[in-house]
Amino acid sequence: MDEAIAQVKKALKDTAFTDTQIRDTVWNYYFDVDQSVNFLRDQWKRQENKKQSAPKKTSKAFREGLHFADTVTCWPGTGHCSSGKLRQSTQSSPSISKQKTPLVSRCQYGVSIFDGIPWGLTASMNTEISYCGRPTPRMGLLGGSSKLAALAKSRAAKRQQELEYQQQAHPMEDVQPATPSTSSAIPLPKSPLVLDTAVPSTPPASGASVSKRLTSLLAERSRDRDRTTSRAISPEKQSYLRRTGSHSPCTSSLSPKSDLSSASAVFSENIPSSFATSLCDSAFAQSTLSSAESPSSSLVPPRKDANQKAFDGMNGDEIWKMITNKPLFYLPVTEKQAEEIAKNFARPSPDDIIKDAQATKGGTASVTGSGPKKVQSQKGGNRAGLEKDMKSLSIQDHSVKVPQSKQKINVVEAFSSSHRKVHINFVVLGHVDAGKSTLMGRLLYDVGAIDARTIEKYKRDASNIGKGSFAFAWVLDQSAEERERGVTMDVAMNSFESSKVAFTILDAPGHKDFVPNMIAGASEADFAVLVIDSSLNAFEAGFTQSGQTKEHALLVRSLGVQRIIVAVNKLDNVSWSEFRFDEVKETLMPFLSAAGFSESQTSFVPCSGLSGDNIVNRSIRPELSWYKDRTLLEELESLTSVERDIGAPLQLSVTDVFKGGSSSAINITGRINAGNIQVGETVLAVPSNETAAVKSIAIADQPNDWAVAGDNVQIALSNIDIVHLRAGDILCATANPVRCAKTFSARIIAFQLRIPLIKGSNVLIYRGRTTEAARILRLVAVVDKNTGKITKNKPRHLISGQTAIVELEVIGSSFPMETFKTSKDLGRIVLRQDGNTVAAGIVEEILSVKNDSTSD
Amino acid sequence: MKLISKQLDKEGAGSIRLQPEEPADLWHAYNLIHTGDILKASTFRRITKDKDKDSTSGVTGTTSSSGSSQRIQLTLAINVQKTDFDPSAGALHASGPVAEESPHVRLGAYHTLDLALHRAFTLSKLPNAPWDSVALQTVTSACDPASRAEVGAVVLQPGFANICLVTEHMTLLRQRVEISIPRKRAADSAAGHDKAVTRFYAAVAVAMNRHFDYGNLKAVIIASPGFTGEQLLQYLLDSAAKDVDSGSATAGTNKMLIKSKNKFLLVHCASGHIHALNEVLRAPEVLARLADTKFARESATLEKFFSVLNEGEEMGGVKAWYGPKQVAAAVDRGAVKTLLISDRLFRSDDVKKRKYYVALVEQVRSQGGEALVFSSLHESGKQLDQFTGIAAILNFAIPELDDMSDDDERDVMQIEEH
């Protein structure tokens, strides 16, 4: 960590960040120096521009709110220090309240909570620890599936009703719009209500003074409040307690979202301090949110209504200026303290990013250009999902979401609140002996995933059997047979992480006979690396009709991969000739674009797996000085992960079934095509139609309680016999079983055909690991490739390159599939005949389903 | 098949007495026996002795109040109404009303004859559906001892194998082996993979030893993608050698296996599915050894048909067609070079249709073309059946065929299926 901080410092010489700021940032970025530096620079610029740091304050405060949520379960540990900090807050709150902006005071409060401890490190340590160790239900602060959104919406509607009711009951609230900062800070009906009830005698004319008095009142009360109670009152905790069914009077009644009247009742009762705390907690968080969201308040329609008036014609920046332009010298705290506080706020935090992302969404508030991107990288993917999450990102949503049992994890929430790296799956393709395995072995070695000793051993062993150049390939070719023959036969899966991205390599075999394995590998991948042997004649051999370069490229494209990186390998054999590189590029590009890879989605890297040039490290060879572009790893890191629907019903393609070592558990590996899975869940195996319980889940050998679409997982199953599982099966949600087709219609594109496809042609259908014999029942129509219009009905036969709609019948056991419309992954098929890929297509309609679904 | 006697008149009506010698002969018999024929064979029937009469209606299993029921052997002639052939069990049943007087069974009583190996039967065809050229050719080829080539074939891929017997006219799937093989994975559980692979080879070897009589097979084909076949053969020979040394109960089979080592033929194919046999049987290695066999010829001809069909577009007109109407039109124009026809079409219950196809075959032959009757029990024949069962390679392109409306297809389907 220190090292990282030092680096960041070095990079930020010209700016004036404090150590703690930097440390904090570095922590936030998982010690990624580059990102931290970028972020701090952005912050600096912003500061320069605005001379204000208020937005950061809020975001910081908000983040503390988050941490509150996160740390709820292990609170006793952290509660101790927080109570001390809270006490501090009692000093600062009244003073700040003089700014006439309760918003700030609340923010202040939020930050000061943690003032008592060495901020950057300890606080983060606290939160971090509690975050990891959390054994109980996730609070899912950043939840955001459509379902959740709907829930939130309904709650919000309810809230709205209550607000209306409140408005009737308390006309004083009409004052609120007059003080924009207040109302913006308190978008919820609850807050105005609090003002009413807490200071019933306050003249309604001055919202500011109301808030001022309120805050001071709250502060006083919070001074001697019961620590436990205060804990229970933070809104997140409330929800938690509600969920777990505890009956602390204040918690049950204090849910600020809906139980407004009861909240006021509680306030007027004997637990004022706790209420105050809750008010502060929730209010600061909400204020943060609302300010951040104000420009995009339409994202949460009900709240928009609540906020609309207050925000009238105002965006977040303006509000912030309003707030922060208030002179700070009203504070009874010393100048120094104030500065300290300000600095605390000035520190960047992930919530800045979140806020920025929201602002970006809304399109009006200030944006740090890299904000959303960073969020994305932190959250491990799914940009759209994340943005959706952002929409529903609010405390209300959070405390409202308590529908599930304690054990059940809301994976969507857990996923969006988790800080996973971007995960990139890619398959390595190419003609046999293009050097795929060697290239990947070299990549793994150079990024440090394989230690030098292992490589030395491989080198020794490989040269013992006269295959010295295969040492790197042995990293992936693990089986004795593959090593002996020097050919990859089955897909090898390896994982490694670079500083930014977690990668999964699927090293596909290049040999013609193992194309089915390659299909299996390719269907698990989102991206492809096409390896070309640039040696004289070798490229040409691979590029002929019978070569696999073309077949692989076509296949991987028809399996849905859109982005391809072409590694022009073995350039050392042609003395690093730029001419040769260009020649390969020019020959390949027309073919690739015809296959459907656009030029922008295709990149070429000259490299050599054997020597390691341009793979991880840029080549320093003078011969290769003509190439200035990215190395292979840089290209891979530039990929952005593919968006998947993690809230959909589960669909998991099983790639392997095996018995675990000593335990009786049945292990499967596979890829989640859609939805999510969690430990304890019951899943249905199709086509055997047997249910199984998920015992454990591991992603890249790391145990996890859940996994989402796009993950390559290993799962231990119980309550199922191994005979009911085969590689190629689908595990799916019991409520949404995948269908097993007997006959179906598909739209196919014929590849280069040796013999035409006619009615009755026997083909093999491939999809992932699933293979089944089938025959063409009927050629329905030939359609135009571009327009999709039928050009000929009932053709007698199909020839190369034609697109057609055909009906297929599965011979033998049935084939679990979905239409392409419902599932992109389960709706893609490849047809092969006599060892040649004859067509690829998508399932249009399932015509009949296998009757006896219980096939053993 | 043994031809015992043959009494035909000029029109082809008359009877032929045959004795099936091997399972394939029952298949021939199945192709020869049509509805309306008179089939006479030795059979068993339960007879209930009545007090009044000396013969009874005696439907098997009748509950007769008095008298005793007795199972006796007798020779019955039936008017065939239905035939039923089970290739894997090697059983042929023909049923219909009794057509000839018998002391025990009255005329018109229904009976099912089970044709068995080594038991002669007499098949008489009436003048309205006499012995035609195709049927007579079937008799000739069935009785040709030279054509009794039997080949053992194993098509496999990792975890999946089909063990078949391929005879001149039939492909019999003897056993399917399916064992789930876990994928290779780093270090620790690679053992699971290897173990499963060995288990798979062992299962295939056991199945082969059970179904293959190595001494009598003309060849044993092992076909697979990749190196699976190679490894299987290695495993077979290794385990056989071990077995012979240890002198276990299966030592005899394994001794024979080692003796027949040179009969093994390693062929490459794309998958372990049974229809890959088609690809296997036209592989050059197989053709070199089994060129004169019917199944190899069929596979090669079908392949040729496809390639002609494929190149059709570029060659300025398609010179290959399928479908009854199109083929008939081509025959009318004398354009057919090779006629591919499935024996299924000659088994039609409709005498007219049978005659029509026979006439078509005769016409092609008279025009100097070649007519190849595919066995619908072979993979190639099955495939031909999938596209109407009749196809032709032409000497010259006939563009008009393209215009034939596809509505015909429905008629064809009706003709074909019923």
**Quick one: biggest sheet of chain A?**
6 strands, mixed
Total number of strands of chain B: 17
Mean pLDDT of chain A: 68
Task: Describe the global form of chain A.
Answer: globular
Strand content of chain B: 25-35%
Q: Biggest sheet of chain A: strands side by side, in what order? A: 2-3-1-4-5-6
Low-pLDDT segments of chain A:
52-144, 171-211, 224-314, 326-333, 362-386, 390-406
Main β sheet profile of chain B: 5 strands, antiparallel
Task: List the quaternary state of the chains.
Answer: heterodimer
Distance between the termini of chain B: 30 Å
Class derived from helix and strand content of chain B: alpha+beta
Q: Which blocks of ≥5 consecutive residues of chain B have pLDDT under 50?
A: 53-64, 406-418
Of all chain pairs, the largest interface belongs to:
A-B, 48 and 42 residues
Span between termini of chain A: 55 Å
Q: In sequence order, what are the helices and strands of chain B, one letter per element?
A: EEHEEEEEEHEEEHEHHEHHHEHEHEHEH
How big is the Rg of chain B?
Answer: 25 Å
Q: What coarse outline of chain B follows from CA principal-axis ratios?
A: flat
**DSSP strand content of chain A:** 15-25%
Number of DSSP strands of chain A?
25
For the residues shown, what is the average pLDDT of chain B?
82
Helical amount of chain A = 40-55%
Structural account:
The complex is a heterodimer of chains A (856) and B (418). Chain A has 856 residues and is of the alpha+beta class. Chain A is globular. In chain A, the strands form five sheets. A six-stranded mixed beta sheet of chain A has the order 2-3-1-4-5-6, with helices on both faces. A six-stranded antiparallel β-barrel of chain A has the order 7-8-14-11-10-15. Chain B has 418 residues and is an alpha+beta fold. In chain B, strand 15 (336-342), helix 10 and strand 16 form a beta-alpha-beta unit. In chain B, helix 1 (23-32) runs antiparallel to helix 2 (133-142) and helix 3 crosses helix 4. Residues 53-64 and 406-418 of chain B have low confidence and may be disordered. Classes of the chains: A alpha+beta (856), B alpha+beta (418).
